[in-house]
Design brief:
The protein is mainly α and 217 residues long. The protein has eleven helices and no strands.
């Protein structure tokens, strides 16, 4: 069991490092948008969804309302309906424990769990262990980014805005060893590319998720 946990942490380590860097970027941008450090960290601890948090910060930083920020984040997080449904049957424990464990089901922890198990049976221990590590990295990076924002400056000047897309490609690639996942990924990519010029990123992402699920089924 101890060796299993060590191997799970080791597998998650590179992903956690990338998420930590992206968390720093989020903390810096949140500070630029006028969000106090404690609020930015609290959002990371409770929301724990990088894309929706960036969307919310972008909306608030451009003068948008809190309602618009919530809608933008909700659209981006719509993909978790599919991820949560796929992971629900493997989460251990009673109702309360499963509810807490579900908060750790994010894109990266789910991809690592599928890699350790299968799309039909994600590894529950990898899901929980990697999710915990990712939460620590994300919250810690948000705090450091918020505190060091004036020193770091615009994270885009350092190329940090490319970290998350590169991370997703790295997570997706090992899962494309069969025809069905590859076809689903291509369908999602095509729908997202078609929607992006006309809709928000959240709508495009939700459309890509629906297309991938439809084709895979």
């Amino acid at each position: 069991m101890a060796g299993y946990k060590r191997s799970s942490w080791a597998a998650a380590a590179p992903v956690v490092a990338a998420v930590f860097v992206f968390g720093v970027s989020y903390g810096v941008l949140a500070g630029d948008a006028g969000i106090p450090v404690w609020q930015a960290v609290l959002m990371s601890a409770t929301v724990f969804a990088g894309s929706s948090q960036f969307a919310a910060v972008s909306v608030l930083g451009s003068g948008g309302s809190a309602a618009a920020a919530v809608v933008a984040g909700a659209l981006l997080n719509a993909r978790y309906l599919a991820t949560g449904a796929a992971a629900a049957h493997v989460l251990p424990g009673g109702r309360l424990q499963r509810f807490v464990g579900a908060q750790l089901v994010v894109d990266e922890s789910y991809a690592l769990a599928v890699g350790a198990g299968s799309a039909q049976q994600p590894d529950p221990r990898v899901l929980i262990i990697s999710g915990t590590a990712l939460w620590i990295g994300w919250v810690g990076g948000s705090a450091i980014g918020g505190l060091l924002g004036p020193v770091v400056g615009d994270p885009r000047s350092l190329g940090l805005d490319a970290a998350f897309p590169a991370l997703f490609v790295a997570l997706l690639w090992p899962l494309l060893d069969r025809r069905s996942p590859a076809v689903a990924a291509i369908a999602g990519l095509a729908v997202a590319a078609a929607l992006l010029p006309f809709t928000s990123a959240g709508v495009a992402l939700a459309g890509a998720a629906v297309a991938g699920l439809t084709v895979s089924r």
